[in-house]
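Reviewers of the previous submission asked for a worked example of the structure-prediction workflow described in the proposal, so we include one complete record here. The input consisted solely of the amino acid sequence. No template or homolog information was supplied to the procedure at any stage.
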Amino acid sequence: MRFERAYVPFGYLWTSPYAKWQGPLAELNALDMAVDVTGRALADRGLPPEEITEWALGCTVPQQHGFYGVMGVARRLGAGNAGGPWIARACATSAAVVEHLATQVELGAHEVTIGVVTDRTSNGPLMQWASARRPGGAPVVEHWVLDPMKLDPTTGQSMNDTAENTAADGGFTRAQVDEVALLRHEQYRSALADDRAVQRRYMVPVRIRRKRGEDWLEADHGVHPTTAEGLAALEPVRPGGVVTYGAQTHPADGCGGVVVTTPDRARELGDGVTVQVLATGFARAEPAFMPKAPVPAAERALADAGLGIGDVDVVTTHNPFAVNDLWFSARTGFPLERMNPYGSSLVYGHPQGPTGVRAITELAHALHARGGGVGLFTGCAAGDSAGAVVLRVDG
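From that input alone, the workflow returned the following structure tokens.
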């Protein structure tokens, strides 16, 4: 979908630190986290919540009191009568939220909109459905977070299987997979230089309230130190495969946000610097080849923007497997080293819904650091699907 009037004020993309699941955010309701982080992000930027007339909540893991969705979040933040939809598109949720907000602005329905995207994979809900036909009336049970990773009911294969299938089709070796994983870790470490100067520009700490006082999570938690030797020593997840636990992401907890508004309002709020949303795109790959999907999603978004991959200066990806980036680079010709300059979800984890917002945030900052340009975010999602967003930063 192409846009001409949808802009993000520079600085109005933010993310919390991410915590590996069962870590310091494991007991924090994702909606409570989002309300607190969003409230402080807006206050720090000087945007009153009541000025925002369209809200979208991106969330894929049900939370206690979540039935009221965005209505509860907006009301708790003082947004008056404003509301909006709850959007869940698996790991492409952030791209779907951006598309919804950009559409509202493009059509003139709203001037200032916001996406609040949050998820907690820790302690995911255990879903139970009554079944009188089963022995003893035993319920049908599904673990909301863990079970989908192990089985796509339409293919009978796991997410790890989709990575191995794609690696085999691309002819990728274990050495190539490990090299990409190591590169992403090295890029992430570069973002930690000078006391995390890069991350501090867009990262909003998470407050963790205790019975006595409170703690703060100010940096990512659970990123594993990674070396070439360490990666080489790992056994593949599937016997005979090329994917190890060092070359794939881990579940995480976190949140993020994005404000989309008109060109004039964006220039006012962003002190003259803006991030224009040029286009979004969604696509699916063939069944059981999920890491392939970011390519057609990116191609669709770029085509709608009237651009080609040669016009793109920086790419960020949601890459739950290093295989994702190998396939993208092989099919588009975009250099691996020009992707994910501040690391990626492969390194700092994947809280599902908000992962894309972090990648889009880091994309905008990487473009700004180089003086502007065109950027592409693309990332896969469950069901062999993917979402993409094309941006232009003007300086």
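The chain has one domain: 7-124+182-227+246-393. We consider this example representative of the routine output the project will generate in years two and three.
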